[in-house]
Amino acid sequence: MAHYSISVNLAHRKCVVVGGGKIAERKAKTLLDFDARVHVVSPELTATLSELANQGLIEHAAQNYNSTHLDGAFLAVAATDDMLVNRAVSVDAQSRNILVNVVDVPELCTFFVPAMVRRGDLVISVSTSGKSPALARRIRQRLESDFGSEYGELAALLGEVRSEVKALYPDISDRNRAYLRILDSDVLDLLAAGRTKEAIERARECIL
Q: Could you tell me which CATH class the domain 14-113 is placed in?
């Protein structure tokens, strides 16, 4: 069954990662990238996770997992090499209506983490609903080559002029046409060439 894709605001939300190995490290770092409050539960940590804990960037419970570690959590990720622990995390999370992902065990998940390409606030995600992470990664690699940093700058620029567009055009259809004029112009090329000031001026010309 295909899964419904949404974008979730994780800023300042408690996200629990159970496990202290390389996979848990990768999951924790991704959550940090989206400003989550990351709690890692594991008696042992990788060197990188230890450093993140020492810097105060993650909270570390140097314990074996128990259900109280999920108190106040928005989502949980189980990334241990012990299937009994992973299953317990899934059961406990679902009983509390907490989103849960168990790495490489789709049937224990209530959400999947898509393969992502991030360019600033622009996030492009690819999901196969847990069927083939390898395919999702391959598509992500193609997207990485097709969408450079200028697309993140374009998203930021569009956000910057959004209030101006709304003020000029109360009608949504007129607003959309204004945005299309920007997208169909040479604004993206100017950004790719590092000519940011000219790109902003060109975008404002397209609005009118």
A: alpha beta
Q: Which of 99, 138, 132, 134 is nearest to 117 (CA)?
A: 138
> What CATH number does domain 114-146 carry, 3.40.50, 3.30.160, 3.30.870, 3.30.1380?
3.30.160
pLDDT grade, residue 2 (50/70/90)? confident
Please state, in angstroms and as integers, the Cα–Cα distance from residue 56 to each residue in 30, 170, 186, following that order.
16, 46, 44
Average pLDDT, integer, range 96-112 = 96
Exposure letters 166-199 (e unless 16+ CB within 10 A, then b): eeebeeeeebeebbeebeeeebbebbbeeeeeeb
Closest CA to 163 of 149, 150, 178, 181: 178
User: Per-residue pLDDT tens for 151-191?
Assistant: 999 999 999 999 999 999 999 999 999 999 999 999 999 99
pLDDT confidence of 3, banded at 50, 70, 90? confident
- Other beta carbons less than 10 A from residue 68's beta carbon: 9
- Written in H, E and C, the secondary structure of 22-71 is HHHHHHHHHHHHCCCEEEEECCCCCHHHHHHHHCCCCEEECCCCCHHHHC
The two structure tokens encoding residue 115: 């393969």
